[in-house]
């Protein structure tokens, strides 16, 4: 029987597909039987010896004993404590069974995920494999030291600003620093406080509308240009009832609450009785007693104001995360180049 050409083509195609499927299945079986290699996002148990370029050991998995950088990971002759760690610097959303954040150990004060040069060097290692990783520069190890002249970014004041360290006090664990403004820099003024300085007027009502116009060694002059003129909320109990006008030198806020509107605060009921060109007359009632007070309808203040650049003796912990994000730490290991000898014991993938 002679087969039609189209039938022959179909048979050949089926053979090719079947062969490819068989090969793909075989590849997957082979892949599943290969030993795990450390990947970003894995959890690992490992032994380690951390040392400096001169060979001095600063930390290890060994419990006691005179350890050198060449001491073998020999469980029969030494007491070794496995270190648990996470490979990567992202947020951990899931842990291996029986693990949690508290189970992740520290090497000279830092968890593995914070020592980027180490976990990057461990990537690709197999279970049971040993490797020497280094030199790891400070930027990928324990960071650079926090010292005078260091510039870093922080939202310590609310907006993200640049600061420079002017003094470090290791005894009292404080630092002093100054804001490094730039002419034309714009941001949202923080509410009420600028460090220890009280902000008297509500410049924060306008987002990214305050600009640096000048500065000297200790202070900066700021100018606000309102970028929203209507439906402003100056008082939280009267929403969207304040309008704005401004000229070259001043800003005026005019509030027009609805007559009869009221709110209760700490058992007192406040009711708008009358609104004139200049005042808002309010009754304050508690029980059977009522008193009347006048609130200024118009608030006028300067568009320009001065703020300090200097921030003195701030607790280190307030800036710790921001400094670390800029590559600086208070660790006694800061500024040091390090090496690690490691042995991967187990890889956990979740």
Q: How does this model look, in words?
A:
The protein has 350 residues and is mainly β. The protein has a domain of 116 residues: Chitinase A, domain 3, CATH 3.10.50. The protein contains 3 helices and 26 strands. The strands form 8 sheets. Strands 1, 2, 3, 6 and 26 form a 5-stranded antiparallel β-sheet that branches. A 4-stranded antiparallel β-sheet has the order 8-9-10-24, with helices on one face. It has a 4-stranded antiparallel β-sheet with strand order 11-14-15-23, with no helix packed on it. The longest helix is centred in the N-terminal third of the chain and has 28 residues.
Produce the secondary structure layout.
Elements: H1 5-32, E1 43-51, E2 57-60, E3 83-86, E4 106-107, E5 110-111, H2 116-122, E6 130-136, E7 144-145, E8 151-154, E9 161-169, E10 174-179, E11 186-187, E12 193-194, E13 197-198, E14 210-215, E15 219-224, E16 242-246, E17 250-255, E18 262-265, E19 268-275, E20 279-286, E21 289-296, E22 298-302, E23 304-308, E24 310-315, H3 316-325, E25 328-329, E26 338-348
Parallel strand pairs: 7-25
Antiparallel strand pairs: 1-2, 1-3, 1-26, 4-5, 6-26, 8-9, 9-10, 10-24, 11-14, 12-13, 14-15, 15-23, 16-17, 17-22, 18-19, 19-20, 20-21
């Amino acid at each position: 029987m002679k087969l039609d050409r189209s039938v022959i083509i179909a048979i050949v195609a089926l053979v090719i597909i079947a062969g490819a499927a068989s090969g793909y299945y075989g590849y997957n079986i082979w892949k599943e039987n290969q030993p795990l290699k450390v990947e970003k996002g894995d959890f690992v148990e490992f032994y380690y010896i951390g040392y400096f370029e001169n060979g001095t050991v600063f930390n290890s998995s060994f419990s006691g004993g005179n350890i050198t950088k060449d001491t073998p990971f020999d469980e029969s002759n030494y007491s070794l404590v496995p270190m648990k760690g996470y490979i990567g610097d992202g947020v951990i959303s899931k842990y291996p069974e029986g693990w949690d954040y508290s189970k992740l150990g520290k090497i000279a004060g830092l968890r593995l995920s914070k020592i980027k040069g180490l976990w990057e060097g461990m990537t690709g290692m197999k279970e049971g494999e040993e490797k020497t990783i280094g030199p790891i520069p400070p930027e990928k190890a324990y960071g650079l030291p926090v010292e005078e002249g260091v510039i870093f970014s922080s939202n310590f004041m609310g907006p993200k600003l640049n600061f420079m360290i002017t003094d470090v006090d290791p005894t009292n664990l404080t630092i002093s620093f100054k804001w490094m403004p730039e002419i034309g820099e714009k941001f949202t003024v923080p509410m009420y406080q600028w460090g220890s300085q009280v902000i008297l007027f509500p410049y924060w009502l306008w987002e990214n509308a305050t600009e640096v116009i000048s500065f000297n060694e200790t202070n900066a002059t700021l100018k606000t240009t309102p970028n929203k003129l209507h439906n402003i909320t100056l008082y939280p109990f009267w929403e969207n009832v304040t309008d704005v006008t401004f000229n070259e030198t001043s800003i005026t806020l005019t509030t027009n609450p609805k007559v009869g509107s009221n709110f209760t605060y700490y058992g007192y009921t406040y009711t708008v009785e009358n609104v004139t060109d200049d005042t808002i007359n309010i009754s304050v009632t508690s029980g059977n007693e009522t008193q009347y007070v006048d609130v200024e309808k118009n608030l006028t203040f300067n568009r320009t104001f001065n703020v300090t650049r200097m921030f003195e003796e701030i607790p280190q912990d307030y800036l710790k995360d921001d400094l670390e994000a800029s590559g600086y730490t208070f660790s006694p290991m800061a500024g040091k180049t390090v090496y690690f000898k490691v042995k991967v014991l187990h890889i956990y993938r979740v």
